Amino acid sequence: MDDADARDALLKLDNQLCFALVTAARNVVAIYRPILEPLGLTHPQYLVMLALWERAPRPLGDLAEELAMEPATLSPLVKRLNARGLVSRDRSESDERILEVGLTPAGWALRTRALDVPAQVMASTGMTAERVAALRDALAPFAGRRAS
Fold first, then answer.
1. Longest dimension (CA), the chain
2. Total-model pTM
3. pLDDT tens across 46-96, in order?
4. Coil, helix or strand for 100?
5. How many whole angstroms separate alpha carbon 52 and alpha carbon 46?
6. Which residues pair with 90 in a beta bridge?
7. Cα 32 to chain centroid, rounded
8. How does DSSP classify residue 21?
């Protein structure tokens, strides 16, 4: 293959990193969908709950930053979780401009049911925890996070 052919090959769709990542992201969400359905969560709602199970309550802006979402996008998700009784939304006592998002007892209880989600995802993909972690870490430069 000469230089011109090699350069042309770089423009093939199947050689594009962006295409591989977009396709993989869509397929990963599809894997999660039936696993999360019994919990009554969409994939974005699951991410919100994961972040809150790590630390709650917290300001909506902090939650949006951690999830790499715009607050305007996150707010309707939080409202839906609030309507389901899983999260609380309260104005900060120190600054009423800040919306604090917390977990209700039902939101905390859902965590116990969610403990099986990672194992179900691994079973669906045939991947071990080590392979999942290696893939996650390999994607860190694209996700704006450091490998763990």
1. 67
2. 0.89
3. 999 999 999 999 999 999 999 999 999 999 999 999 999 999 999 988 888
4. strand
5. 10
6. 100
7. 10
8. H
Q: Determine the Cα–Cα distance for residues 119 and 141; give it in Å rounded to an integer.
A: 25
| Residues constituting the chain | 148
* HSE value, Cβ hemisphere, 13 Å, CA-based, for 64: 16
CB 102 within 8 A of CB 92: no
Residue type, 134: A
User: pLDDT tens, 21-49?
Assistant: 999 999 999 999 999 999 999 999 999 99
Instruction: Give the C-alpha separation, 49 to 134, whole Å.
Output: 24
Domains in the chain, ordered, with CATH? 3-143 (1.10.10.10)
* Contact assessment for residue 74 and residue 60, using Cβ atoms and an 8 Å cutoff: yes
The pair of structure tokens assigned to 71 is: 């607050």
| Token digits of residue 33 | 């969908």
DSSP state of 95: -
1 secondary structure, DSSP code: -
